[in-house]
Amino acid sequence: MHELPPLPYDYNALEPYMDEQTVRIHHDKHHATYVANLNKALDKHPGFFKNDLHKLLVDLNKVPEDIRNDVRNHGGGVWNHTFFWTVIGPASVHEAQVTDESKLIKIYSAIMKDFGSLDSFNEKFKAAALSRFGSGWVWLVKDSVGKLSIVSTANQDCPVTDGLTPLLVIDLWEHAYYLKYQNRRAEFIDAFFKLINWEQVEKYFLAEELHQ
Ligand code: MN3
């Protein structure tokens, strides 16, 4: 059985940029529902419970056809949310990281190399997040040769299925921001930038393989 990982900080830790009520519903209801529905799908082929979720999504074409779409949607929903909570954190943590850039040399140099500057990365990431039509996610990913790029996925699709390594992600489903920001997606994206946990992003960048 897959289980809902606990939120790695308090429900109110992302205030004022992500409000407590949104975080609570997002984790305890939305994220939890993906876990429940993934388990329900795998109940039809219990042998697949032994595969970790990462492997299921990487080798999605090996998942039996009658549950493949459920694993893609609900398994993706679990993986993406679990990952999302790790790449953000309290604004104070973010603030301490960006005021001492010497600690994040490796991820910043990779961003400089592939995007020109941190500002240029931020602009491109924001533009991609604004233009994501409907529900989905915008990611910073690393490919097999270590090059960074920004990709956008619909619904709960996860870039690991395309052989990419996620480093950072923003959830652009309305449930991620509607209570506080309503239709003001741009404000939500600006707020997200104040919560990025760059140390964690750098860890993902340096890791040989990602597992969940
Ligand atoms: Mn969500």
Keywords:
single chain, 212 residues, mainly alpha, three-stranded antiparallel sheet, 9 helices, 3 strands, 50% helix, binds manganese (III) ion
Protein architecture, described:
The protein has 212 residues and is mainly alpha-helical. Helix content is 50%, strand content 10%. The chain has nine helices and three strands; from the N terminus they run ααααααβββααα. The protein has helices at 20-42, 53-58, 65-87, 91-98, 105-115, 118-131, 178-181, 185-193, 198-206; strands spanning 136-142, 148-154, 165-171. It has a three-stranded antiparallel β-sheet with strand order 2-1-3. α1 (20-42) runs antiparallel to α3 (65-87) and α6 (118-131) runs antiparallel to α8 (185-193). The protein starts with 19 loop residues before the first helix and ends in a 6-residue tail after the last helix. The mean pLDDT is 95. Manganese (III) ion binds at residues 26, 30, 81, 171, 173, 175-176.
Please render the helix and strand layout as text:
Elements lengths: L19 H23 L10 H6 L6 H23 L3 H8 L6 H11 L2 H14 L4 E7 L5 E7 L10 E7 L6 H4 L3 H9 L4 H9 L6
Antiparallel strand pairs: 1-2, 1-3
Helix pairs in contact: 1-3, 6-8
Bound molecules: manganese (III) ion.
Overall 3D form: globular
Number of helices: 9
Strand content: 5-15%
The largest sheet has its strands arranged as 2-1-3
**Rg (C-alpha, Å):** 17 Å
Mean residue pLDDT: 95
Low-confidence runs: none
**How many beta-strand runs?**
3
The ordered string of helix (H) and strand (E) elements is HHHHHHEEEHHH
Bound small molecules, deduplicated: manganese (III) ion
